């Protein structure tokens, strides 16, 4: 089960801040909100939530979640029909009027030039890690079957299983963008920066492979 949990889990990287930010473009109204970003192997999930009532024209309490997927194509530059899955999702979110802080974060993953290729590198890291995790699963099944016949062979296959899991964690850490993802917001007069850290999916996969 841990193979599937780590493979499809949405918290390989994680960040959470509190910021004061406009809810929509060209609006003077701001909300004091909690912003949470979770990066998985297949997508990025962004949550915007405030505990107080939003003081804009609609007067709603904000509890908004958006998921942008990159499975598994890069596509052409831009946001047209031949663009990648992520860029098309981003354009649809713009058309729907998704809150500005979510679009601000998601836009960082659409850049694809010079050293700023967050979306491309996270997609490639997720692709290779996902392959290694799926390779580990049949090896684990084989090791359980072989244990009934020859204990030594079962142990060898189980070591291969752990090697694939550890390799997945190392590949993910190596292939993701070499420039750390940092997204600035403000909370009053103080700078509040989203800085990604490895989440429980990453550490669970690494510990599972080591054991």
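^ Assign residues to that structure.
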């Amino acid at each position: 089960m841990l193979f599937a949990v780590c493979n499809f889990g949405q918290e390989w990287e994680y960040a959470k801040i509190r910021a004061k930010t406009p809810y929509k473009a060209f609006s003077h109204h701001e909300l004091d909100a909690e912003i949470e970003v979770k990066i998985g192997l297949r997508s990025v999930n962004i949550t915007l939530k405030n505990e107080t009532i939003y003081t804009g024209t609609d007067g709603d309490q904000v509890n908004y979640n958006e998921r942008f997927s990159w499975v598994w194509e890069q596509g052409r530059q831009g946001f047209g029909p031949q663009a990648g899955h992520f860029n098309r999702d981003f354009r649809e979110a713009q058309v729907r009027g998704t809150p500005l802080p979510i679009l601000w974060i998601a836009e960082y993953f659409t850049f694809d030039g010079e050293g700023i290729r967050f979306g491309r590198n996270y997609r490639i890291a997720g692709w290779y890690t996902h392959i290694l995790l799926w390779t580990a699963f049949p090896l684990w099944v084989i090791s359980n079957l072989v244990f009934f016949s020859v204990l030594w062979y079962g142990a060898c296959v189980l070591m291969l299983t752990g090697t694939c899991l550890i390799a997945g964690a190392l590949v993910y850490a190596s292939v993701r963008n070499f420039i750390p993802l940092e997204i600035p917001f403000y909370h009053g007069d103080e700078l509040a920066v989203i800085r990604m850290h490895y989440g429980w999916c990453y550490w669970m996969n690494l510990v599972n492979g080591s054991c």
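The CA atoms of residues 45 and 97 lie 17 Å apart.
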